[in-house]
Amino acid sequence: MSPVLSRYATPFITGLFLVSLISGLALFFHIGPSGFHGMHEWLSLVLIVPFVLHIWKNWRPMTSYLRGTPMAVAVAVSLLAGAVFLLPSGSGQAGGPPQMRLAAQVLKSTPEAVAPALGQSPEAVTKALVAAGFTPMPGQSLADMATAAGKSNADLMAALLATGG
User: Fold this and answer.
1) CB 101 within 8 A of CB 94
2) Which residues neighbour 121 within 8 Å (Cβ) at sequence distance 6 or greater?
3) Which of 60, 80, 120, 141 is most buried, most CB within 10 Å of its CB?
């Protein structure tokens, strides 16, 4: 490893960890600018590079950690803590940002049900969907319509937005 990389791996881990810590706390408490979300995601990914360099630089001491019980316990507890967030919440709803949950709920609806929200008649929405290559069936959900057409939900939502709504 070059001396420059060796010299900067740990300082960059520290700096990027602090950015991740502060942006993560701001996201958790819903404070600060909206840029914290992208900052947290992207710079947490960038943190991988100095982390790998740090492990490489400190490989010999790391091997003694890897053979010890504390590392096994720490990894197991960390994995269990992460797994808790993947368990179903019992609410029957998918997780994720509210706008994505709303979109998923809309996709469960029929064209007739979403037409008023788009400021369009059911006929106009159906016409736009047919023009985009979808085949609406009575009572069929938008998501099922996309699947039947071999298209994505995003394609269907784009067609809905093209109705002028």
Assistant:
1) yes
2) 115
3) 120
DSSP-derived secondary structure for the chain: --HHHHHHHHHHHHHHHHHHHHHHHHHHTT-S-THHHHHHHHHHHHTHHHHHHHHHHTHHHHHHHHHSHHHHHHHHHHHHHHHHTTS--SS----S-HHHHHHHHHHTS-HHHHTGGGTS-HHHHHHHHHHTT----TT--HHHHHHHHT--HHHHHHHHHTTT-
Q: Which two tokens stand for residue 95?
A: 């997780």
What's the rounded mean pLDDT across residues 126-143?
92
Q: Please, what is the average pLDDT of the chain?
A: 88
Amino acid at 39: M
The answer for residues whose C-beta is within 8 angstroms of residue 93's C-beta and 6 or more apart is 101
| Dist CA 7 CA 13 (whole Å) | 11
Please state, in angstroms and rounded to a whole number, the distance separating the CA atoms of residues 24 and 27. 5
Q: How far apart are CA 119 and CA 132, in angstroms?
A: 19
